[in-house]
């Protein structure tokens, strides 16, 4: 029988919050969790291409499934934001 992978639930405390300063209707986007990160990448990102963007999407999914540390996904998001010209501000919880 084939084993089915189940997404692991991560608490928001595992993800140090970031504010993404984006252009468009929602200029600022608070990212406090992997779920927030996935929404930002899939729904609000200005472009769906770029090497760092692809890496960030894959790393986010890997972290959601428990195959990568949350900190790796956060770092990938920061690199993708830099690539896309999005300002990233650390938020104190």
Automatic annotation (TrEMBL):
Highest taxon in the source lineage: Bacteria
InterPro entries cross-referenced by the UniProt entry: DUF982 (IPR010385)
Pfam families noted in UniProt: DUF982 (PF06169)
UniProt name for this protein: DUF982 domain-containing protein
Organism encoding this protein: Rhizobium grahamii
Lineage, uppermost ranks: Bacteria, Pseudomonadati, Pseudomonadota, Alphaproteobacteria, Hyphomicrobiales
């Amino acid at each position: 029988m084939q084993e089915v992978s189940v997404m692991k639930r991560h608490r928001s405390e595992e993800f140090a919050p970031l504010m993404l300063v984006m252009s468009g209707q929602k200029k600022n986007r608070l990212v406090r969790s992997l779920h927030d990160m996935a929404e930002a990448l899939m729904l609000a990102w200005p472009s769906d291409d770029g090497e760092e963007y692809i890496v960030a999407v894959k790393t986010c999914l890997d972290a959601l499934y428990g195959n990568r540390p949350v900190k790796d996904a956060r770092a990938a998001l920061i690199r993708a934001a830099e690539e896309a010209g999005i300002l990233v501000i650390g938020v104190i919880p």
